[in-house]
């Protein structure tokens, strides 16, 4: 199943890149990801990490949620069993795209299960300029780093922050953290 998803991710990146008239070199330059790595991902030979995929998506003008949105019939309802799920091969974090796809909304909702001890960093990226997000923690512990500031979140806490500045997620606890990301692309 993971290999099928890796292949689908590669096909989607290639399709989006071509539809935007971008060469591999242009996408590599815009994303900060090497041409060789993008090529390997497009061929289904490599699994992108969350950080790498976020940089490629930002260069394509998409959030991760919009990237994973299923193409096809538009519906205002997104049933749990139909929601796209992806596991980061590096950290094991599981992200579920909750938002109904194809609705043209500027807001994406993502449900995340983040393993104990896991850490993922998203470097600053100009393509995400103006995008903001809320991180709402349901269970466990979460440390969010933005610039030099570290925010420790407990269940029920919600942190607002810009996306483009770069940030890091860390679960310092012994149990998985579960949180919701509400991403707003309107400022982009």
The total beta strand count reads 10
Biggest sheet descriptor: 6 strands, antiparallel
Portion in helices: 25-40%
Helical run tally = 5
SS-based class: alpha+beta
> Would you state the CATH class of the largest domain?
Mainly Beta
The CATH topology name of the largest domain reads Jelly Rolls
What fraction of the residues are assigned to beta strands by DSSP? 25-35%
N-to-C SSE series? HHHHHEEEEEEEEEE
- The largest beta-sheet arranges its strands as 1-2-3-10-5-8
Number of domains: 2
Task: Describe the protein in words.
The chain has a 6-stranded antiparallel sheet. Strands 4-9-6-7 form a 4-stranded antiparallel sheet. The N and C termini lie far apart (34 Å). The chain is α+β, with helices and mostly antiparallel strands. The protein contains 5 helices and 10 strands; from the N terminus they run H-H-H-H-H-E-E-E-E-E-E-E-E-E-E. It folds into 2 domains: 2-67, lambda repressor-like DNA-binding domains (434 Repressor (Amino-terminal Domain)), CATH 1.10.260.40; 75-184, Jelly Rolls (Sandwich), CATH 2.60.120.10. A hairpin with a 6-residue loop joins strand 1 (85-87) and strand 2 (94-97).
Task: List the defining traits of the structure above.
188 residues; 5 helices; 434 Repressor (Amino-terminal Domain); 2 domains; 6-stranded antiparallel beta sheet; 4-stranded antiparallel beta sheet; alpha+beta; Jelly Rolls
